[in-house]
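Problem 3 from the worked examples.
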Amino acid sequence: MYRFIKNHKLTTLILLGVVIVLSYYFFFQTKTKGESVKLGEVSTEKLSEAISASGSVDAAIKAKVRFASSGKLSWVGVQEGDVVKKWQALASLDKEELQKKLEKELIDYKNERWDFEQGREDYGVEKVQDQTYPNVLTDELRRILQKNQFDLDSVVLDVEIQNLAIKYATIISPIDGLVVEIEEPFAGVNTTPAGAEITVVDPKSTEFVAEVDEVDVSKINVGQGAIITLDAYPDEVIKATVKSIDFVSTTTKGGGTAYLVKTTLPENIGVKFRIGMNGDIEFVVEDLKSVLVVPQKSIIITDDNKTSVWVVKDGVAKLIEVELGAETADYAEIISGLKEGEKVATEGQDELKEGKNIE
């Protein structure tokens, strides 16, 4: 009898231990440690979708002017930073030598003209206007007269060319603006057309030029709004409007394909905006008000390629498929699948399992 009672107690203890172990196992199998799981909330927000790009300040109206021929630089009438008017003279070559050459060409012209007239008189055709001389008796005489005519025409052209050389010996600014670069600022040196270039920029025409990736350029249109932040004025938000989008692509420093998008800048009072200032720009693609959004960190793509979110309700995780709308770097619009106020996992999703509790 004593042995029976003892065995019965032992069996009861064993069964009790098994029950405790199984309960412990099933309890912790249905719970997930949530120490690394962080939650966000489905909320209604104003959402602005934007495209970001980098760029710099440039000028829409600028001119690089140079001499048409080589010569001695005799006069430079401006300095870098000077304000100039349209058609103002900027620099000049030495015209004395050019003038002497013109005088020589004029003398050559007079000599050739006299020879020409004498030839016509000698051959009795001084009153003939047709330069083909159809009534001249022989082909030889006709060729002589025509050659004289060609020689005269050639000398006339030499005079005209030399006269143009004097005319173009002075650089003229074709625009109102600011002199920003003079490659040869000192007179007295011999120069070539490429060596005496002067750059004039109209500061009123400053614009911001950004390199937009080919993937995003189709989302931008002329007249679209944008926000610019320049490195020179980091605390200032500059509103801009898209002026133009290049038709031909450009290659970025990283080897990618981009298109130059030009936007307006505010009035350049006091030359606030200078060529070469770097900055960033955001093109507002879509501006939505009162839309349902979730943090971007909560969005996951499942193995079957479905866009989903882990929703946590009453401490239980559930994977919900969602449909997204507009997106920004931080938030995504929810078209369907979620309700405002629901809690979603933003970190630690790998630890979650369907239907399991979160500690």
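Problem 4, a separate protein:
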Amino acid sequence: MVWSGIMINGRTCLHVVANGTMTGQRYIDEVLLPHIHLFRGSVGDKFVFMDDNATCHRTLAVQDCLDSEGIQRLV
């Protein structure tokens, strides 16, 4: 599996998930948290996060992480 993020003025590098399944916690640890600072640096503190509704994006752990970082999610 490969993950990448797109923004109004660019994109992230590809993140290759080599082994196993992308769980909510793995998504937080390997993808979400490392890229939050990139998003904020590119578009400022007031951005809206949008995902593609994959199962790993919709876990309670991911929602709690976004809430704790003060990130608004487009539902």
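Solution to problem 4. The mean pLDDT is 86. The beta strands are 2-3, 6-7, 10-11, 15-16, 48-49, 72-73.
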